[in-house]
Amino acid sequence: MIGSPFRTGAICWVLLLLLIIGASGAPGQGNLLVNALGALLLIQPDGSQQSLAQSVTLAVFSPDGSQVAYVTRAQNLIVVTLATRATHKIVKLPLGAHFGRVEWSPQGTAVAYEALQHTTDDDLFLANVKPKTGVPRNLGHWSHGFSFSPDGKQILHPVSAPAGSVFERLDISTGTRSVVHEVDAVVWDAGYSPDGKLIAYRVSLRRPDQPRNYADCAPTPLGLRVYSLATKTDTIVTIHDAPANWDDVKTYSWSPDSKSIAVTLAPTACEFPGTSAGIFVTAVDSTSQRRLSPSGISFEPQFSPDGSAVAFVDASEPFARLLRYDFGAKQLTLIRRASGQQSYYRLLGWR
Fold first, then answer.
1. 321, 318, 349, 351: which is closest to 334 by C-alpha?
2. Longest C-alpha distance within the chain, in Å?
3. Residue 264's domain spans which residues?
4. pTM: predicted TM-score of the whole model, two decimal places
5. Strands 309-314 and 298-303, how do they pair?
6. 118 three-state secondary structure
7. 268 occurs within a structural domain
8. In a domain, 309, yes or no
9. In the chain, how many domains are there?
10. 192 part of a folded domain
11. Is 282 within 8 Å of 261 (Cβ atoms)?
């Protein structure tokens, strides 16, 4: 028996809604993007899991969480639409080059990527994703990662100088570069806050003119600072209750409201994650702080889309765990435990 047009249409709408929910997660909860030893996974906060691709090295959500750009070991940059699983290859790098950082523009219409060369200078490219791809635009020589301004009009990155570093800002429309801030140290990972008013960055705790003992394999520890574009002030972020030897900031991520930062803190060691690392959330001015991780090895914190929780990886057991801390309930829960050949997790984003 053939159903009525109304009933058939209603069923189609229900199926479409279920497909969208499966791709984007429950309202306010989103999905977690995880690399499990090359397998790119989409994990829901309830622990259910979908496989997106294999042989993946890098991946990042689009701003609205509807697409993922990922890099394969063959140095292809591919975009997948989560609702349909349709894929589109953006670019393949030539032999001898490999991808560095990859980020979406805030409007979700383009992907920027670093092309790292073995014999020539590294360059930054901007590739349109929609309405059509075209030839990626070369934005010039680049280094040390990058961060889009929230309005998508500028791109920021630190540049090493003999006496320290400067923050260089590129105007995308004109290609003009200007200096935003100077730092008497070597800088990595400069990133705009979501509201565009602050810049967080990791900074070397050893002055550029201090010699390094290259017989020691341990890297220079990195601290965390926040620079205010409005007041032109630079503030050191100090984790007050961390163990005394935990002096190296490994990663950080901004809260959606720009008021807090989640930090991976660990001892300075030859290898990371080593034998210990922890997750802390701190207010920008360091007045309010909380340790989220249990004792063990935890890293790569990511805020939920609504800012009510932080997820992170715990590798203190043979199979990595994906954990979640809810601020309202002040409770730590297990999202999913790795298994089989996918024994190790890297948390790449939460949208």
1. 321
2. 83
3. 253-279+292-351
4. 0.88
5. antiparallel
6. coil
7. yes
8. yes
9. 1
10. no
11. yes
